[in-house]
Amino acid sequence: MQSLLQNLRYALRQLRKSLGFTLTVVLTLALGIGANAAVFTLFDQVLLRMLPVQQPRQLVRFNWTGGFSGGATVFGGEMGDYFSYPMYKDLRDKNQVFSGVVAVDKTNVGVSWNNQAEDEDAELVTGNYFQVLGLQPVIGRLLTPQDDTAKGANPQLVLSYAYWKSRFAASPAIIGQTVRINGHPFTIVGVAPEAFQTAIGGYKPGLFLPISMSEVAMPSTVRRDSFNNHRFIWLTLIARLKPGITITQAEASLAPLWHSLRAQELTLYTDRTERFSKNFLDKTHLSVKDDSRGFSPGRMDLKTPLILLMSMAGLLVAMCAINVATLLLLRSAARAREMSMRYALGASRSRIVSQLFVEGGILGLAGTLAGLAIAPLVANLLVRLLTQADPGSEPYSAIIDSRVLLFTLGISLLVSLLFSLAPVLHFIRPNLVEALRQSAGTASKTSQRFRKVAVGVQIALSVLLLGAAGLFVHTLDNLRHQPVGFDITRLATFSLDPTNSGYGEDRTPQIIATAVDSLNRIPGVISAAATTDPELTGDNEMHSFTIEGHTFTEDEDHGFESPDITPGYFATLRQPVLVGREFTTADAKGAAKVAVVNLAFAKRFFGTPQNTIGHLVVDDSHPGAKPDTVIVGVVGNSRHTDLRTELGPAVYRPYAQKEHPVGVQFYVQTTQSPETAEASIRKEIHDLDPTLVVSGLRTMEAQTELASFGERALAILAVGFSILALILAAVGLYGVLAYSTEQRTREIGVRLALGAPRASIVVTVLREMALIAAIATIVALPSIGLLARYFRSQLYGVAVYDPITLVASTALIILTVLLASALPARRAAGVQPMQALRTE
């Protein structure tokens, strides 16, 4: 212990004497370790962390394969991740391997309390939800099976801890009070645990509602008879294995039950074909999957970007370790006389080695503390970039918890050991006679070779990170310049759902129509319109159609995008009407049914837009109905779901003729900047009804940016990592060249005295390092192509070996090498021969 304390005191004195060196090393480590901690904070929550419930490893979820025909409402993932309510009850009541099965769905509702209305995310859960998860309330009680007895009979709710704290100031008096959900009174019965958000990963609901109240929370489900309809799937299921039951055993046990339940459902398809029956029954399978981390459709969207970021952060921390090792070796050369003197005075090799490891440990600890200080800021930036959440509603936390802390300390320990090995190996077998004879230490050939290799590795890693940044920046630029088929300039957009304020289907159309008229009266507004299927938000509204004169084959897809829109929609978006007309106020409920189709639809079924006008289609939601909707117009194609994919065949119908009206997305075209109209838009809707909530009001240009948020986040972060890598490579290169120049001062002086031109001295100094940089760049460039192949799904419009990226990466490395070499080369050229000859 006494020896350790002595080593600590000596190390602190040495590092304090070289304050500039110490700060450089600490800052270098802080950048790499802080970046790793920040990325791992999100990586852990999305991909690794288990749900904060009792025995999460016992939780499983279901996924099915096989034929299906019917309706579905899903929030991501695969169709097979969702089930009907009758199927849920059968699996819950007839299995032998689960202690409980729960069903969940998510939605957005209007919450009114104390004359204040707002939209809030909610999770619909069966009454046994909290019981199966093994959770206890903070105050009050949680939902029980008695709160989920019959449709519409259980107006109770549980608050999430975060919503209770932010909306109700964490008041215990809220228990038993009434709030209105979509205009209906609900009683608050309890608050969920603080650590628990939801069983759906990446989701942060404020409320938990009984699934028996789903028709209040989601009025659009009323027409689907969701509690009795086997052909409407909308619920994801979670189950808890009985003790001693494995996933494999559970899946095997469920196989005969699943087959018998599917056989019963098959009888409901009166128009089934032999092929459909075979796909539905013979090719069906129910899988049981681990759900310890929660069902998260968004997890797959973040998985690849997070793996990329962790890889970049890993490369960055590797560069930091190499850079610090190089700096320590350069410092070791100046300490050769000191260490040799200690050996000569009887210091043991183990004492010297322990001294060097203690110094490295202090540097590593200081770098880790500095890195942890900046990690929350970087983590918060990551969460905002990768999820595009509004402040306060981020689905993931930026807090550095114990798991992240342990990971960071582990990385710190590993890095400290690695960079401390460089001076240890340098001093473990010193040449005492040579070192004591010289006034300045000289580096061994092994040390010189290590420094050159280290610089080469840093340059190669910098090229790789630059290539990644170039690929993502090029992808983002391609998406930003991708034509979307309509004009996004001077266009504001927001969502409005009257059903969240208690309006029924009978009054919703009038509210929407009145809102359109009110918006059109705002000074500076050219036109306003609305749709049930918003543009560039990732949403789809699909319906199957029968088309007059066309017989679909069994394998042919006849499900098309089918938005319901108000009059003037295409004029508001400046989406060209190629032939015919768009909808007018005359296309009202009770009038002749009409539709507008896009160019892709017209070409597929009728050849030309002109031939399309007058033909009939019909929505297949009413089996046996004859085509009764006449096509009155054809519009140009557009991007709809995202910027990458062009919308296929689409059928637009009048909102006024919609059988079950729902909330809409408004678009408002203005003469000036749409930001200036935002206050007026909010005022008009508030004047219409104070309980109506304007959600997501933004410009369409901002929405387009949101549509490429994943690519933008990767591009920004990749550029950030590559800039840090370039700085580290430049520091390493500068250090090696500066030291090499200093060691060759006598040689340079002799050459200058013998008449060598100063330009040749510069070439001599730079030649070897330029060769190393060239080799490193040539080796690294092919790796950019390999990276592009592996992460091709994240790229758009970029070749595997993108010439722009390769040239730009090479040019930036050349510039970095020149900048890092400029000062050492200048010093070498400025050496005075007589002064150099007197240095030793």
Explain the overall architecture.
With 840 residues, this protein is an alpha+beta fold. The protein has 25 helices and 24 strands. Strands 15, 16, 17, 18, 19, 20, 21 and 22 form an eight-stranded mixed sheet that branches. It has a six-stranded mixed barrel with strand order 3-4-9-6-8-7. Strands 14-23-13-24 form a four-stranded antiparallel sheet. A hairpin with a 2-residue loop joins strand 7 (178-181) and strand 8. The model is unreliable at 439-443 (pLDDT under 50).
Largest beta-sheet details: 8 strands, mixed
Number of strands: 24
Alpha plus pi helix count = 25
Radius of gyration: 34 Å
For the record, give the distance between the C-alpha atoms at the N and C termini, rounded to a whole number. 42 Å
| Dominant shape | globular
Poorly predicted sequence stretches spanning 5 or more consecutive residues: 439-443
How much is the average pLDDT? 86
What kind of assembly state do the chains in view correspond to?
A: single chain
The proportion of residues forming helix, as a percent range, comes to 40-55%
Précis, in short:
The chain is of the alpha+beta class and 840 residues long. The strands form 4 sheets. Strands 15, 16, 17, 18, 19, 20, 21 and 22 form an 8-stranded mixed β-sheet that branches. It has a 6-stranded mixed β-barrel with strand order 3-4-9-6-8-7.
